[in-house]
Amino acid sequence: VRRPLRRDHGETHVLTADEALQHAADLVRGGRVLGIGSPRASLEEIAMLRRLVGAEHFHAGVAPGEWRCL
């Protein structure tokens, strides 16, 4: 994908960069995203993703026992 697209009721629309960023921000604010971390990500990256999407919408991408060790 070389440009931002949005599908709405089965129709695809090309967005400007500003429109795409605004739509992404609206989704995050509305709690309509899920963040899945990775064992390969740094602790700082995982913390920022968790902060961005909220604890209730976040999964570290590691087993709970391993997560408690971090």
Query: Care to count the β-strands?
Result: 4
Tally of individual helices: 3
Helix content: 40-55%
Tell me the overall shape. Answer: elongated
Estimated share of beta-strand residues = 15-25%
Quick structural summary:
Helix content is 43%, strand content 17%. It is an alpha+beta fold.
Task: Name its key features.
70 residues, alpha+beta, two-stranded antiparallel sheet, two-stranded parallel sheet
Structure description:
With 70 residues, the protein is α+β, with helices and mostly antiparallel strands. Helices cover 43% and strands 17% of the residues. It has three helices and four strands; from the N terminus they run E-E-H-E-H-E-H. The strands form two sheets. The protein has a two-stranded antiparallel sheet with strand order 1-2. Helix 2 links the parallel strand 3 and strand 4. The N and C termini lie far apart (35 Å).
Set out the fold topology.
Blueprint: E1 5-8, E2 11-14, H1 17-29, E3 35-36, H2 43-53, E4 58-59, H3 64-69
Parallel strand pairs: 3-4
Antiparallel strand pairs: 1-2
